[in-house]
């Protein structure tokens, strides 16, 4: 594992934890985790690495809200 990979894992975990707490009453942690991982995969290599945290949070939160709205 490289330093970059470890940093990326930390960012992904942080976003997952943040959104899991925020939406705990509406979505399971595993559902949030799936959304965050999917958003991360879509962003990887598409944006500057130093912007990953903010962009991952924004995209994943948008997708969580879209998921809730479609219910």
Write out key terms for the chains shown.
71 residues, globular, 3 helices, mainly alpha
Strand content: under 5%
Mean pLDDT: 91
The helix fraction, in percent, is: over 70%
Tally of separate helices: 3
Question: What letter string, H or E per element, gives the SSE order?
Answer: HHH
Q: Give the beta-strand count.
A: 0
Q: How does this structure look, described?
A:
With 71 residues, the chain is mainly α. It has helices spanning 3-22, 29-43, 52-69. Helix 1 (3-22) packs parallel to helix 3 and helix 2 packs across helix 3. The longest helix has 20 residues, at 3-22. The radius of gyration is 12 Å and the shape is globular. The N and C termini lie far apart (39 Å). The mean pLDDT is 91.
Question: Summed up, what is this model?
Answer:
The chain has 3 helices and no strands. About 75% of the residues lie in helices and about 0% in strands.
